[in-house]
Amino acid sequence: MRYFFCMKRVLSGMQPSGNPHNGNYLGAMRRHVELSHDAEHECFYFVANYHALTTVRDGATLHNLTRELVLDYLALGLDTTETAFFVQSSIPELTELTWIFDCITSMGLLERAHAWKDARAKKKKEITVGLFNYPVLMAVDILIYKPDMVPVGKDQKQHVEMARDIAENFNNTFGETFKLPAPDIKEDVAVVPGTDGQKMSKSYGNVIEIFADEARLKEQVFSIKTDSKGVDEPKNPTEVLPYNLYAFFAHDREARDLAEKLKAGGVGYAEIKKKLFETLLDHFAKARTARRALEKNLDHVEAVLREGTRKARAVATATMDDVRKKVGLWL
Predict the structure, then answer these.
(1) Is the dihedral of CA 316, 318, 323, 325 positive or negative?
(2) What's this model's pTM, rounded to 2 decimal places?
(3) Per DSSP, which regions of 167-267 are E strands?
(4) Crossing angle of helices 269-283/241-249, nearest 10°?
(5) What is the rounded distance in angstroms from the CA atom of residue 245 to the CA atom of residue 167?
(6) What is the set of domains in the chain, with CATH numbers?
(7) For residue 223, what pLDDT band results from cuts at 50, 70 and 90?
């Protein structure tokens, strides 16, 4: 049993955008799972399928991406006994509060969003109202559950700050209502390199997937770029891409031992890739088995989501009852 009087509420959303990779796992997913097992935290986690509509235009695709991400998190060991785990679109109060926030949020605030300016500059995404309004919906996602902390990457810090701005504006206009959440950024989270040395990203096509089958995983690992140094030549571990990825998952002593061997010479790149491949297979073996079982037990998955939705809506409904009274939307 958890002692609720001392718990901090944690809120985080994950957009369904395709097969999760090691960068997703090390950057966010692992921490989400760890926090769900921590008795000092009450976690609200959701699959952000509304946000995915800014890029996904096929209903069947979005449905499948959403379900797959749910399976991924459950397979990785998310504790749903205390955690509210749900799909964003199952909470109708979100769209209602989005309109209310729209009516008090200035265009200037949204125009300053880094993601909006980046999208317009690079022209890689369709410039839509939804994309422009993205930070308002994200503010609603956060504020409606009144969390204490929001784990995000450094690139999402501004969105949490904008949520605070919107909350302060609402509180000043209609009275104290929303808690001002704090972005929780782990400064020691390193950028996870992809197979080409750039940041691991689906958009770069340089990922190593968590749940790829064995043949696919081996192909991805052995595609990692290396230089032309021979087996016997000494190598700087920090410059050896497959070693850098191996070090994220290996035990500290194993990583140090391999680093020393690289410096001394006598270790080839194929051997390092083989170690990385075997380490990844071992690290995610339990999760792979769990995911296969979940695929055969979708009734359980749906039950988990129903319970998560119930928990989330209880909070969202209470928040909206208060909001409606304060803005005058009641009779």
Answers:
(1) positive
(2) 0.92
(3) 182-184
(4) 30
(5) 40
(6) 4-190+298-327 (3.40.50.620), 212-283 (1.10.240.10)
(7) very high
